[in-house]
């Protein structure tokens, strides 16, 4: 193996077995060399002793969307071709070390147990990992002796799960290191020139791309303009439940992925998103129980529940539709129209113009709407028409279901009494 000089900011990785830490978070902008240095550490450590190493990301629909190719290239660069055997979907060392790759989005609490035994876990592109994925991954991979979790990210939004939980918070179990192109002695000259040009032309974009400062709204976000307006008008704030108004819910029903629910109240043209809930791999009885609990705890008086058109489809195993199952649980669902993606997006744009969000209760849902984006085509250097299907899709689709049913929410509120005086003096300011 060739001699390896380790940059000072990456030395904490090599001292893991001497210190009482679990997480190593490397964040920053483009050109910092984070992936190369982490890849080198993994390969060197895997050659020193037997490891089971998991390299994961939120979405991995093919091995090409992983660090498999990066690790393969670094094996050659480090002179480790005689030690590692590169296979189509994994990498194996002659000492028994195995490196495997997976997406997190497709996993459930049960299926993620296949990751048990991982001694090192590398979460790449961690800015895209959802809070739910973290909640089922971390308890699984910390069951080994002296486990190690490495996270690398170019921050997108300050509310991104990894950034909010591991970078912003001061955690005793975490080493946080910021790495930018200015820290990378091997950063190519053309990248430095590109960074300096952007610094002169667009300093805000320079801070985000090259210095890793999070943006409030993701690039390519479908509702970017709407949320910029919402932010200017301070419509993400404290929005209390009004006991004088009925509560409407809108749903996106998942089978092998999350189910999301929004809770709305409407007064005139004003839409108030007062609550939001999302969970994964739970039966419908779980969501009915959530509705019951919110009714008991907060006094929600439900008027209508809006669900996608496919709620009427019968389950192949039971022969009973989810619509009937919810009815049996005490909740009659209103089946939505069969509309295309663009129709739903346009309805949501109009819906957002008059919408206020409770900052705390709707935190995850707001983040999803801000991250709902179109897929980027690297070859054409433009965004595709198709929205990305990831963790942000479910809450966004549920919100869209509310948008296309707004006219069915207003009838019951026409004769409702005006909202309480606290509205003018608090969240409306």
TrEMBL record:
Pfam families named among the record's database cross-references: Terminase_3
Region Disordered, residue ranges: 410-429
Domain Phage terminase large subunit N-terminal: 24-213
Record-linked InterPro entries: P-loop_NTPase (IPR027417), Phage_terminase_lsu (IPR006437), Terminase_L_N (IPR035412), Viral_DNA_packaging_terminase (IPR052380)
Designated name of the protein: PBSX family phage terminase large subunit
């Amino acid at each position: 193996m060739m001699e390896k000089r380790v940059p000072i900011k990456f030395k904490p990785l090599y001292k893991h077995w001497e210190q009482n830490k679990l997480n190593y978070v490397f964040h920053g902008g483009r050109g910092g060399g984070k992936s190369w240095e982490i890849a080198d550490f993994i390969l060197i450590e895997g050659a020193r002793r037997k490891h089971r190493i998991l390299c994961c990301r939120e979405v991995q629909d093919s091995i090409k969307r992983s660090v498999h190719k990066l690790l393969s290239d670094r094996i050659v660069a480090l002179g480790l071709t005689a030690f590692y055997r590169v296979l189509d979907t994994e990498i194996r060392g002659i000492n028994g070390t195995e490196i495997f790759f997976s997406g997190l989005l497709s996993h459930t609490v049960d299926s993620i147990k296949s990751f048990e035994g991982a001694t090192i876990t590398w979460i790449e592109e961690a800015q895209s990992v959802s809070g739910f994925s973290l909640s089922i991954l971390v308890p699984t991979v910390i069951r080994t002796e002296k486990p190690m979790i490495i996270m690398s990210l170019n921050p997108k939004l300050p509310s991104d799960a990894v950034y909010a939980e591991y970078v912003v918070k001061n955690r005793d179990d975490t080493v946080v290191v910021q790495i930018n192109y200015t820290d990378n002695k091997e950063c190519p000259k053309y990248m430095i020139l590109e960074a300096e040009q952007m610094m002169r032309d667009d300093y805000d974009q320079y801070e985000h791309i090259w210095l890793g400062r999070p943006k409030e709204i993701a690039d390519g976000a479908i509702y970017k303009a709407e949320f910029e307006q919402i932010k200017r008008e301070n419509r993400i704030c404290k929005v209390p439940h009004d006991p004088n108004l009925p509560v409407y819910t809108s749903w996106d029903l998942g089978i092998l992925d999350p189910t999301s629910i929004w809770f709305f109240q409407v007064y005139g043209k004003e839409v108030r998103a007062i609550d939001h809930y999302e969970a994964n791999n739970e039966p419908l009885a779980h969501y009915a129980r959530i509705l019951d609990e919110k009714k008991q705890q907060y006094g929600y008086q439900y008027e209508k529940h809006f669900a996608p058109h496919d709620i009427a489809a019968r389950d192949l195993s039971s022969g009973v539709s989810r619509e009937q199952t919810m009815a049996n649980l005490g909740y009659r669902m209103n089946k939505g129209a069969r509309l295309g993606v663009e129709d739903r997006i346009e309805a949501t744009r109009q819906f957002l113009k008059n919408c206020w969000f409770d900052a705390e209760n709707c935190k995850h849902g707001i983040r999803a709407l801000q991250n709902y984006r179109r897929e980027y085509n690297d070859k054409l250097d433009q965004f595709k028409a198709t929205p990305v299907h990831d963790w942000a899709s479910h809450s966004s689709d549920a919100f869209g279901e509310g948008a296309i049913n707004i006219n069915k929410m207003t009838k019951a509120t026409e004769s409702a009494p005006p909202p309480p005086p606290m509205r003018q003096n608090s969240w409306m300011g």
